[in-house]
């Protein structure tokens, strides 16, 4: 699928220089951006179906531009940004870069793009979360329905804020995922908020009874489950056992299967996990 408006925008970016623009293209056609004195670009980590191994989505990750392959993670820059306004600027720059670098690639196919929303943004944006990013996607005529915004884990005291922000994203047409620290917390969130996706840590699989309950209730509510940070064969085995016992499909993401990289996988690599 091609996106003509995006292609015109990229053609204009190819004439820009790093010194004159906050976003430009490198010699390989990848979009780069600048935050203070740091140059950044995008890496994408696949999210695969557990049963088939097929890639269903990618998570966009900010990376410093480095002579080494993928550079360093830049997400912690938001933790040290001097002000809320600068946090908002960096967060939106990252999401725009990822959207450009994802949809400019022909192999984006029908996969979804997961984009992080930093926890500082939950309270820093005064109203109408998602409106500014929706305007960018609309201007470039990029498909809103293929973007999933990932919300950070919220404390019990922030529950109202998570509800408010998620409602804004939904009103602006976005699907959203919620990161949760445990299956028990996911069940609490499910009672008051119905996200499109839960993201859980594949290193925390000890409470099998609660996990089974979560799998069943999430399937009934139409909520997908992604287990991130999949790093060991043992965790992969446990997830397969949980999925088979509950009869519920799961999605998985982690270095055991794929490393983040700038280029999306080709059709053959998307079909089977490495």
TrEMBL record:
It comes from the Bacteria. InterPro entries: EAL_dom, EAL_sf. Residues 24-274 form the EAL domain. Gene3D superfamilies: EAL domain (3.20.20.450). Signal peptide: none annotated. This is EAL domain-containing protein. It comes from Rugamonas aquatica.
């Amino acid at each position: 699928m091609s996106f003509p408006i995006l292609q015109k925008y990229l053609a204009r970016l190819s004439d820009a220089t790093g010194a004159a623009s906050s976003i430009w293209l490198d010699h390989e056609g990848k979009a780069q951006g600048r935050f203070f004195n740091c140059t950044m670009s995008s890496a994408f980590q696949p999210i695969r179906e557990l049963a088939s191994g097929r890639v269903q989505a990618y998570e966009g990750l900010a990376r410093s531009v480095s002579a080494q392959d993928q550079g360093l993670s830049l997400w912690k820059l938001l933790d040290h940004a001097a002000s809320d306004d600068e946090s908002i600027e960096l967060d939106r720059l990252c999401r725009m870069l990822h959207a450009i670098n994802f949809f400019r690639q022909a192999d984006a196919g029908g996969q979804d793009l997961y984009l992080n929303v930093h926890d500082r943004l939950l309270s820093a944006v005064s109203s109408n979360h998602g409106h500014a990013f929706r305007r960018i996607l609309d201007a470039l005529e990029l498909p809103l329905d293929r973007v999933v915004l990932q919300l950070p884990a919220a404390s019990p005291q922030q529950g109202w804020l998570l509800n408010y922000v998620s409602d804004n994203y939904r009103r602006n047409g976005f699907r959203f995922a919620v990161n949760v620290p445990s299956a028990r917390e996911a069940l609490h969130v499910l009672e008051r908020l119905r996200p499109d996706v839960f993201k859980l840590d594949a290193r925390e699989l000890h409470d099998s009874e609660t996990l089974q309950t979560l799998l069943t209730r999430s399937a009934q509510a139409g909520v997908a489950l992604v287990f991130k940070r999949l790093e060991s064969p043992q965790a992969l085995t446990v997830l397969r056992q949980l999925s088979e016992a509950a009869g519920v499909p799961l999605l998985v993401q982690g270095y055991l299967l794929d490393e983040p990289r700038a280029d999306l996988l080709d059709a053959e690599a998307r079909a089977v996990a490495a």
